[in-house]
C-alpha cells in the first residue's frame, strides 16, 4: 500500500463524512416539527427511530454506491 492510496482513501472518507453530515443537517432542517433527541430518548418513540435509521441507511447506501466501482483518480471522480 502506497502513501498515495492512503491519502486518496482518507480524502474519500472525509468527503463521505462531510456529505453525510450535510444530509443529517438537511434532515434536521426539513423536519422542524419534532426534536429528535426528545422523541428518541425521553418519549422512546420506536417509529421515529425507524424513520431516522431508514433515512441514514439510505444515505449510507447512496454514498457507498459512489465509492464502489472503478476510479479515475480522486480529482476526476
Describe the structure concisely for a colleague.
The protein has helices at 3-30, 36-42, 46-67. It is mainly α.
Secondary-structure element string: HHH
- Percent range for helical residues? over 70%
**Quaternary structure annotation:** single chain
- Whole-angstrom Rg: 17 Å
Q: Mean pLDDT, rounded to whole units?
A: 84
Unreliable runs:
none
| Number of extended strands | 0
Structural class estimated from helices and strands: mainly alpha
- The termini sit apart by 21 Å
The largest sheet, given as strand count, sense and whether it forms a barrel, is: none
As a percent range, the share of strand residues is under 5%
Which descriptor suits the 3D outline? elongated
Number of helices: 3
How would you summarize the topology of this molecule?
Elements: H1 3-30, H2 36-42, H3 46-67
Helix pairs in contact: 1-3
What does this protein structure show overall?
The chain has 77 residues and is mostly helical. The chain contains three helices and no strands. It is elongated and about 50 Å long. The relative contact order is 0.12. The model has no long low-confidence stretch (mean pLDDT 84).
Q: What are the defining features of this structure?
A:
77 residues; mainly alpha; 74% helix; elongated
Amino acid at each position: 500500500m502506497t502513501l498515495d492510496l492512503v491519502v486518496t482513501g482518507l480524502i474519500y472518507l472525509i468527503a463521505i463524512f462531510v456529505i453525510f453530515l450535510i444530509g443529517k443537517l438537511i434532515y434536521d432542517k426539513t423536519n422542524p416539527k419534532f426534536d429528535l433527541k426528545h422523541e428518541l430518548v425521553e418519549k422512546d418513540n420506536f417509529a421515529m427511530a425507524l424513520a431516522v435509521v431508514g433515512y441514514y441507511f439510505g444515505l449510507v447506501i447512496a454514498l457507498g454506491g459512489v465509492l464502489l466501482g472503478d476510479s479515475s483518480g480522486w480529482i476526476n471522480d
